[in-house]
Amino acid sequence: MSTVAELLSEARQLSPEDAPLLLAHVLGKDRSWLFAWPEHRLDDAQLKHYRQLLERRRQGEPLAYLTGEKAFWSLDLEVSPAVLIPRPETELLVELALDLDLPEAIQVLELGTGSGAIAIALAKERPDWKITATDASAAALDIARRNAARHQASNLDLIQGHWYQALPDDRNYQLILSNPPYVRTGDPHLLQDGLPWEPPQALTAGSDGLADLRIIIGEAPAHLLPDGWLLVEHGYDQGKAVRDLFDSAGFSRVATRQDLGGQDRVTLGCYPPRP
Ligand SMILES: C[S@@+](CC[C@H](N)C(=O)[O-])C[C@H]1O[C@@H](n2cnc3c(N)ncnc32)[C@H](O)[C@@H]1O
Fold this sequence. Notes:
2 domains, seven-stranded mixed sheet
């Protein structure tokens, strides 16, 4: 049997950042508990589980899939390989939506919600908003539903289906948001940074990465209320192409915003065009 202190000391050489998180996860405690109880001994099953997780981490599997948790905005969210791991860059989409000058009690739509990160963050920040979030994946929506229940996001409806086809015909929205798949098929980045473990249908969108953005932007005017806003996340090198799609669809006040790393990340526009 091994103690917490022995395992942490061993991990110092191997995996100094991840090992304490994995050890705390296996014990069902938080990291500070480990430092308060260094002499605690793991039983055989816990030790085996910990060593297996450490090995999977060494093979490149994302930490969030090993612990089943990821922080986004002010929320701890459940994640599994059925959903994209929410990224810190995506918080820009939430910030920009909250900064818009919008009326109260509006109808909001998020397309491709995955774990529910964006929709739940907005639902908690704006309890007066009525939010609908969709995904093509039933397995992703199961996770989003559990996250919505965990955070008591009662102003959020989750619907399964292909982009706008999921929606009831008779409803239009003041605000539509999406972080859709936007990586080019065959992009070498897909082989790096844990992406091989993430769901391909959450990542790739045709040979130029714009296949889903074309649908989401092109069909948005039919689903927006007058003076409604569309906000989409995209790749760092897709800003110009995405602004062109907004312009072709007839949006006004089209602009691209940068993430904290200074990279083009979100494009937004208002519909209909203003004179
Ligand atoms: C990049 S992930 C974003 C997940 C989440 N919104 C986030 O920001 O962490 C894109 C999501 O779009 C969903 N998706 C892909 N194709 C779709 C389609 N045709 N209709 C609806 N959702 C789709 C995927 O299942 C995935 O959950």
